[in-house]
Amino acid sequence: MQITFKRKRVKNLTIRVKPEGVFVTIPWGMREAQVQDFIRQKKSWIESSWAKVSTRQRAYTYTEGEKHWLLGREVTLRVIQGSSSSCRIQGDEVVLTVTPETDRKRMLEQAWGEQLRPILVWLVQKWAAVMQVHPSELTIKNMTSRWGSCNFRNGKLSFALDLAAKPEDLIESVVIHELTHLLEPSHNQRFQQLMASWDKEYRSKRKRLNHFPREFYG
Q1: Labelling 40: which of 9, 26, 115, 140 has CA 20 to 30 A away?
Q2: Of 19-28, 93-102, 200-209, which range is least confident?
Q3: The model scores a pTM over 0.70
Q4: Residue 129's closest CA among 212, 206, 198, 200?
Q5: CA pseudo-torsion sign 24, 28, 32, 37
Q6: Is 156 inside a domain boundary?
Q7: Do 142 and 196 belong to one domain?
Q8: Are residues 73 and 117 in the same domain?
């Protein structure tokens, strides 16, 4: 486990645990001794958190017979040598036709994104009408520490490509979460009440989401 330290103009020391290591943001004025003491106090939490996220991120090789996750179900990768690259989904199989130059991960990212986009578009339209909000642009991208984001000022929504691996009810919960930010930018009590009114099981869904295997990580 690698720990990376970075000083920034922030009020408080923060720790972010990712599969590739631990990232500590330190206020400019904090002394080194204070930082080390804080890390020692949080040692058990850091180690347990890192163990959880690192085991959820699989080391994929994108080879024949490998198992992947797509919309909440496990699918099997079939690899065929060909003169050009393509990817097609047939039931519980993903058939990948490759050449020596094929970027296999990139092809799966594109295929997963194509599966995810129409679901997101439909869910955003559905819940925007219910909430009477007006989102604008919708983008899908790799995210390392979030499932989505919402710009309260311009209505732009972004969603993690990794949602394509998750069941639709968990994708829907993330959509509801981000759209609720158009009504309440922060995660205060009003936000929690609004979320509960749209999605009564959003807390348990968030736990499932965070413990579901990861496909893409940044």
Answers
A1: 9
A2: 19-28
A3: yes
A4: 198
A5: negative
A6: yes
A7: yes
A8: no
161 & 117 share domain: yes
Total domain count for the chain? 3
Identify whether 205 is part of a domain. Answer: yes
Strands lying side by side in the sheet with 21-27: 3-8, 21-27, 14-18
Q: Does 46 reside within a domain?
A: yes
- Quick one: pLDDT at residue 56? 56
Segment 147-182, tens digit of pLDDT: 999 999 999 999 999 999 999 999 999 999 999 999
Encode pLDDT of 61-91 as tens digits. 899 999 999 999 999 999 999 999 999 999 9
Q: Which amino acid is at 175?
A: V
Q: Give ∠ CA 34-35-40 in degrees, rounded to 5.
A: 100
Give the residue numbers spanning the domain of 77. 67-103
By DSSP bridging, strand 93-98 and strand 73-81 are parallel
Place of tokens 């679901």: 119
Q: How far is CA 71 from CA 68, 114, 187, in A?
A: 10, 12, 27
User: Distance of alpha carbon 216 from its chain centroid, rounded?
Assistant: 8
Token pair for 196: 């509960």
Could you identify the residue written with the tokens 């968030």? 206
Query: Looking at per-residue confidence, does 19 or 17 come out higher?
Result: 17
Dihedral over Cα of 130, 132, 137, 143: its sign: negative
Residues 15 and 35 in one domain: yes
Whether residue 203 sits in one domain with residue 149:
yes
